[in-house]
Amino acid sequence: MKVIHLSVECFPVAKVGGLADVVGALPKYQRELGVDSSVIMPYFNRKFVHEHSFDVVAKGEIYQGSALLEYEVLKEMDDTLGFPLYLIRIPNLLDREEVYCYQDEADQWIAFQHAVLHYLNYNKIQPDVLHCHDHHVGLVPFLTKWSNEFDELKDVKTVFTVHNGQYQGWMSWSKSLFIPSFDTWKWGLLDWDGLINPLATAIKCCDAYTTVSEGYLKELYVEANGLQHLFYDERAKSIGIVNGIDTEFWDPALDSLIDQNYAIQDVDEGKAGNKLKFCNEFGLDPTKPLLSYIGRFATEKGADILPEVIDNLLRQSSGKISIFILGSGDSGIQEKIQEVTGIYQRDLAVFFGYNEQLAHRVYAASDMLIMPSRVEPCGLNQLYALKYGTIPVVRKIGGLKDTVIDVEEGGYGFLFNDVNAEEAADTVKRAIKYLSYADNLTKTRDAAMGLDYSWNKSAQKYIELYNQLLK
Ligand code: GLC
Asked: Which of 5, 164, 168, 250 to mutate to test ligand 1, by most ligand atoms within 8 A of the CB atom?
């Protein structure tokens, strides 16, 4: 079976969020299960492309409106990622440094999708399944069916995975001139409330859609930034498949990015060693429990309540806890975090930015990880935390609810119901108290580290889905 994943992020080529981690791992695990999986993504002018060798395997031309765009398809020569990686390069459009943030984003993703389909069609490359990730490639399930430019791809099955339903790729109808020619009777499939909505299009046209946890699927039926009825109406072709983690990169016993390796047997010493080094470096007291936050500063992730949570914890429980924050994003949130850092220098340290190595060290060094998300389709950070024996303190939502069980129910984490600083802080206090008993700490860490959140099971579930569609 031949499966091609289409995405605009893939770790380590270009990563902004969890989407990259999934697309950088899933194909590898699928290949181990005998599926011929590969990835096609846009070319980005980033470190990875300069440090690896590529062959130009195809060239072509497409029209976007009246502009003629030339594209190249580059294949990474050594399959470094454990699967074939293809990049679509279009000068001045798909050869930039950042993944997101450009004014002409709609043009970029339309061109990417057009070039991919043109390349496959023209070279008679017929995968069994095109697996599309998020709205950037949401027009693909429509185009394979309703554009006459890609006749060779009519029978290809399309699977669409929703990593985040908040972003839908809305564009004005004036962009329809840029979309490859399609059966105009079908214009309604592109439309949602007077705009072209690639996420809605994908859900209407794909053969199956998946979400990255079962909990999130049920939530989308009720609230999906305007698309809840669509998700519900199309539920017969939906399935929730929880993400896994890539244990080749995320395993404290093998991780070369942390200060001291450890496994379940020596977790206490291992974490203590990592914590000591880390706390010394960031001016924190290693004898106190260390709570961390890693992630984007976005209201979706609940990062806006962090300053208040910090204030609550450090003012009231002063002297009892250290806090570390690693992230970037919304500048308003960042400023507020900066402000509290000024007040609580002794017990709070921050690193503003994205830093993959530091993230590994934070998981290894921390006792607890907080995730106060408003929306969380799956969440990978709690899974990384569990693998590193770091106890998650999370809001009861989406994938967090599916993957973390409270200690009160015999589990290995702490959950709270609302995105509310007081509730979050109280739950952290509950965690500190509970984990302050050596027996509890050992029991909880062992339970967390003993879980299997590797990709093996979920990669298999996707394959079962492909098989059903191909029957
Ligand atoms: C998005 C979601 C996150 C999920 C990730 C990978 O970033 O916000 O919850 O884990 O995609 O699927």
From this structure: 164
φ/ψ region of 72 (left if φ > 0, alpha if ψ in -120 to 50, else beta) reads: beta
The pTM (predicted TM-score) of the whole model is 0.96
Examine the domain organization and report whether 216 and 301 are in the same domain: no
Pair (282, 418) in one structural domain? yes
Residue 249 lies in a domain: no
Residue 256 inside a domain? The answer is no
CA of 330 to the centre of ligand 1 (A): 18
Residue 250 falls inside a structural domain? no
Task: For residue 446, give the CATH number of its domain.
Answer: 3.40.50.2000
DSSP string, 227-276: -HHHHHHTGGGEEE----B-TTTS-TTT-TTSSS---GGGHHHHHHHHHH
Instruction: Compute CA distances 410 → 143, 267, 436, whole Å.
Output: 49, 20, 17
Q: What is the pLDDT of residues 262-299, one digit of tens each?
A: 999 999 999 999 999 999 999 999 999 999 999 999 99
Q: Whose CA is nearest to atom 3 of ligand 1?
A: 379
Looking at the fold, whether 129 and 230 belong to one and the same domain comes out as yes
Whether 303 and 234 map to the same domain: the answer is no
> For residue 406, how far is its CA from the centre of ligand 1 (angstroms)?
22
Number of separate domains in the chain: 2
State which ligand 1 atom lies nearest to the alpha carbon of 301. 8
Within-domain flag for 257: no
For the stretch 358-393, pLDDT in tens is: 999 999 999 999 999 999 999 999 999 999 999 999
Separation of 397 CA from ligand 1 center, angstroms? 13
Query: Could you tell me the two tokens for 225?
Result: 């930034």
Cα 43 to middle of ligand 1, angstroms: 22
Expressed as residue numbers, the domain containing 330 is: 264-452
